[in-house]
Structures are given as C-alpha cells and as structure tokens.
C-alpha cells in the first residue's frame, strides 16, 4: 500500500523500527472489558446475536473498541454449551455431533475422533480441519494411523474455516433448525437478569439443559442423515441420502476409503484422549442439584421450558442458602 498509494518503498524492517520509535502499536491501550461487554450485549439484542466471534470482533474494531479477539470469543461463549461436529465430505453424513462443556480441548476432540474410528470400524484417508489448537490431537492421530502410507503427512489438511465448506454450511443449517431456539432462551435469561455467566449459573445451565440439547442434536443428525440431498448443477456433487451414499458409495461410482486401524494403535491414542463424562457440569454442583431435587421430589425434565424453570428454581434455592 505504501508503495502503490504513496510511492514510498520502505522495507518492512524499517517500518517496524519507525513504529517502535514513535511508540505506535496495534496491541496496546485496550478498551475496558466492561465497555466491550456493554457493546456486545447491545449487539445481541438485534441481528448481532447471529454473529460468530470473528464477525463481532470486526464490529468492535469498527466501532472504536480496542479489544483482543480472544476476549470477544470468551464473552460470546459465557452462556453457551459448546458444540463440536464432523461430517463426511462425500456423503455429507454426520460422523459426530456432540455437546459438552468445551469444544477447544484437543484431548477431548481427539476423543471424539477415536470414538468415531471405533464405531465406524476404521479411519479416513484424509481429514480436513480448521486452523486451531483444538484439532492438534486429531492431526497427530490421523498421521499416526497413516504412517505406513506414502501420503501420511498429507492425510491431515489444515485449512481456514471458510475453506471447510461442508461442515461450515451444515453448522449454519444446525443453528437455523435447532440451536437458535436454545440461544434465544439463554439470551432471554440474561435479559431478565437471572444469568450472568458465573460459575454457578453456567453449571446449572449445563445440568438442566445439556442432555436435552444432545438429544436434539442426535435427532437433527438422524433426520439429516436420512433426508434426500437433491441433485446439483455441479456434476461432482453427489445426491441422495447421506446414509445410503456413505454405506454404498458404489452407487455414486466411487469407492470406500475407510481404512481398518489396528486395535493396538487405537489403544495407544486413547491414552492421550479425554472423553465426555456422564456428569454434564461441575461434580460438586451436580451432586448438590441431585440432593435438592430429591428433597423437593423433582426429576430432570424432558421439555426445554421446564428445564429453564428447573434452572430458576435451583438458582434461587442455592443462592438463598449461600
């Protein structure tokens, strides 16, 4: 830009030296988190509730807020149960779709991958994943499984999320058909002043809603895998039912690239994994909630609105005893 617009061909090293001497930096004088939080909460009252953290970060910058991208991500995640998914690039069949307390732990995501390998009876020839540390174990496991193949280093491909069109497109579908309802419920709790993202309230949301959300994810995945994908103008994009295309790839004139994995290799990788536990939240909060529910003769609801009622009851009960 300096060369083309200002006819100044200064080299990068010289530019950095001048910036240091003038005490100029992109990463200092950050806005207070309270002011950023206020701006983001205002955005969530309108179409801003549909933004991911990268888009919200860009809006913060455009509105004069100096903020770390990581801070924006944490603010947006404070009330959310984290979703992680994987889709077969050919058939569009869901390989896994899980809800848990985090989606950024590489050991946990690696556990999802190993569970899928065991369930499906083998591993893929190629895995395509987003940039990010959460996929580090998946990358290592995939290359370890393919170590005796000549393309072992190419069996895992790091790409920007915008390049992983299959899963990104499907996650947009998931939000529209399933998650938007839950997001609206949680935003409503914040608007009513009965959820502030604290440890207790986050644990109670997980206790009351995690199972229901996972059930809805399972139902959504089942419907998706059995629905018919219509033919496209692009001849390279197959059409049909994801379950059928995955199970019988020969119908689409291709072959099955699933590769059997030695059980010893799987067991070696499992030692580096973390797996979801049956307890959906902090163990102490979980035990306390079960005691309160037993004393009050309550059970976990199978309805979202009753789950929110249970959250409010437990929150008020525990806060009254503190």
From TrEMBL:
Return the Pfam families for the record. rva_4 (PF24764)
Against InterPro entries, the record matches this protein to: Integrase_dom_put
Positions of the Integrase core domain: 78-235
| UniProt protein name | Integrase core domain-containing protein
């Amino acid at each position: 830009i300096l060369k083309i617009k200002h006819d100044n061909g200064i080299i990068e090293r010289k530019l950095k030296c001048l910036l240091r001497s003038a005490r100029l930096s992109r990463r200092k004088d950050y806005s207070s988190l309270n002011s950023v939080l206020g701006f983001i909460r205002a955005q969530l009252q309108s179409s801003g509730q549909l933004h991911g953290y990268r888009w919200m970060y860009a809006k913060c910058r455009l509105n004069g807020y100096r903020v770390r991208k990581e801070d924006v991500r944490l603010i947006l995640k404070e009330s959310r149960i984290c979703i992680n998914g994987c889709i077969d690039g050919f058939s569009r069949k869901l390989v896994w779709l899980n809800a848990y307390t985090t989606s950024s732990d590489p050991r946990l995501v690696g556990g999802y991958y190993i569970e899928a390998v065991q369930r499906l009876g083998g591993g893929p020839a190629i895995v395509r994943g987003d940039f990010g540390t959460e996929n580090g174990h998946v990358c290592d496991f995939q290359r370890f499984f393919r170590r005796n193949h000549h393309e072992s280093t190419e069996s895992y491909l790091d790409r920007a999320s915008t390049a992983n069109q299959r899963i990104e497109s499907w996650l947009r579908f998931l939000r529209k058909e399933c998650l938007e309802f839950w997001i609206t419920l949680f935003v409503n709790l914040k608007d009513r002043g009965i959820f502030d993202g604290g440890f207790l309230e986050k644990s109670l949301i997980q206790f009351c809603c995690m199972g229901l959300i996972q059930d809805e994810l399972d139902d959504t995945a089942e419907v998706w895998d059995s629905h018919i994908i219509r033919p496209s103008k692009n001849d390279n994009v197959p059409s049909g039912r994801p379950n059928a295309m995955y199970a019988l790839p020969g119908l689409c004139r291709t072959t099955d690239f699933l590769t059997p994995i030695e059980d010893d290799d799987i067991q070696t990788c499992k030692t580096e994994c973390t797996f979801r536990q049956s307890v959906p939240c902090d163990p102490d909060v979980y035990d306390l909630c079960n005691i309160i529910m037993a004393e009050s003769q309550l059970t976990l609801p199978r309805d979202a609105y009753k789950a929110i009622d249970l959250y409010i009851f437990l929150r008020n009960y525990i806060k009254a005893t503190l």
